[in-house]
Specification:
- The protein is α/β, with parallel strands linked by helices and about 350 residues long.
- Helices cover about 40% and strands about 15% of the residues.
- The chain has a domain of about 230 residues: NAD(P)-binding Rossmann-like Domain (Rossmann fold, 3-Layer(aba) Sandwich).
- It is built from 12 helices and 12 strands.
- The strands form 3 sheets. Strands 3-2-1-4-5-6-10 form a 7-stranded parallel β-sheet, with helices on both faces.
- β1, α1 and β2 form a beta-alpha-beta unit.
- It binds nicotinamide-adenine-dinucleotide and 2'deoxy-thymidine-5'-diphospho-alpha-D-glucose.
- The site of nicotinamide-adenine-dinucleotide (NAD) has 30 residues, from α1, α4, β5 and β7.
Length: about 350
């Protein structure tokens, strides 16, 4: 592959993916299409500013005219759609932007990719499309889709469009579904970066409900390696799940963060539960391991320590984000329940 087009590359996973890909493939060029919402931060890729193999286009994926202009500007070998509204709590406050970007944006990209005969389209999806697990079992690629939040409903709708374009037009799509990512450059509204940044300022951390919900944590670079493998080795029309084989309750994770940061448990604040809060996610990634030769490499011990070190040494990055729009969201989401 010579040129790939990545959407949402100024966000958490997209920026890690672009940097990894350019390092791994010296002949590869990348076009990054990003609208720069509150979550899109060009600072995440500041080191690539003068790289001749990297081009940034500030474009909304719902803008058909602009998307077609960018698609027509180079011979593109693959489109990878990372762009999305990605935070469940924000989708509960207002589902509007989720419906627009995650569904209409995906349709716009699929149409443009078909029109320009792009040979491969990869949709970056989530394990949340499968809904919630009870105490046992795992999500496989065959698990019925049963989204529970406006965010996951919008991601599921996008997955169904991708599936329909394969079946109706034989358009060459691949879908990946991953569990909870953590690592550098994650926006501090998600549990791990929010709690690290609150704790490093001796602020309380808001644990929803009793903290008994379970997530399956994967380092962002393991996810990015999985996407790269699916792009190059995946079978058209297929879905591939990625997970970290690392299930943890939120309260166990919170206590681990407190311990690693040397903070007292008095900073834990139990707050009202997230409405419709999915109990447990856990991924069976046997298909990706067998077909793509992929497996998660990070141990959680190593990944979480590196992540804490990264946030502590990037306090300026966090500080710039935790102002303006962020403060407004924080007040709306958590009110004055935290000190
Ligand atoms: P993020 O919120 O950090 O980044 C999203 C990026 O998309 C931002 O740069 C934003 O500016 C851009 N964007 C949003 N709307 C856009 C639009 N209309 N046009 C162009 N760009 C737009 O998200 P993330 O955590 O990096 O997630 C990336 C993708 O991976 C999403 O599709 C998400 O559903 C999926 N995913 C995330 C996780 C996770 O744990 N974070 C796990 C599985 C799947
Ligand atoms: O599973 C993949 C999904 O993981 C992705 O598709 C989403 O884009 C990504 O945001 C993430 O969704 P979650 O809702 O699981 O992540 P979040 O970090 O928001 O929450 C993780 C868990 O922690 C969840 O059970 C809710 C809880 N939580 C979260 C926040 C922000 C709290 O207890 N307190 C909080 O303040």
């Amino acid at each position: 592959m010579q040129t790939i087009l990545v959407t949402g590359g100024c966000g958490f996973i997209g920026s890690n993916f672009i940097r990894m890909e350019l390092e791994k493939y010296p002949e590869l060029s990348i076009i990054n299409v990003d609208k720069l919402t509150y979550a899109g931060n060009p600072e995440n890729l500041a080191d690539l500013k003068d790289n001749p193999r990297y081009r940034f286009e500030k474009v909304d994926i719902c803008d058909r005219i602009e998307i077609e202009r960018v698609f027509g500007s180079a011979r593109i070998d693959a489109v990878l759609n990372f762009a999305a509204e990605s935070h469940v709590d924000r989708s509960i406050l207002d589902s509007g932007p989720f419906i627009t970007t995650n569904i209409i944006g995906t349709q716009t990209l699929l149409d443009a990719a078909r029109k320009f005969n792009i040979p491969r389209y990869l949709q970056v999806s989530t394990d949340e499309v499968y809904g919630s697990l009870g105490d046992t079992g795992f999500f496989t690629e065959e698990t019925p889709l049963a989204p529970n939040s406006p965010y996951s409903a919008s991601k599921t709708s996008a997955d169904l469009l991708v599936r329909a374009y394969y079946h109706t037009y034989h358009f060459p799509v691949i879908t990946t579904r991953c569990s909870n990512n953590y690592g550098p450059y994650q926006f501090p509204e998600k549990l791990i970066p929010l709690f690290i940044s609150n704790l490093s300022n001796n602020q309380q951390v808001p644990v929803y409900g009793q903290g008994t919900n379970i997530r399956d944590w994967i380092h962002v670079l393991d996810h990015c390696r999985g996407i790269d493998a699916a792009l190059r080795k995946g079978r058209v029309g297929e879905v591939y799940n990625f997970g970290g084989r690392c299930e943890m309750t939120n309260i166990a994770l919170t206590k681990l963060l407190l311990k690693l940061l040397g903070k007292p448990e008095s900073l834990i604040r139990y707050v009202a539960d997230r409405p419709g809060h999915d109990l447990r996610y856990a991924i069976d990634c046997a298909k990706a391991e067998k077909e793509l030769g992929w497996t998660p490499e990070y141990t959680f011990d190593r990944g979480i320590q590196e992540t804490i070190d990264w946030y502590l040494s990037h306090q300026d990055w966090v500080g710039r984000i935790r102002s303006g729009e962020y403060m407004k969201y924080y007040a709306e989401q958590y009110g004055n329940r935290l000190s």
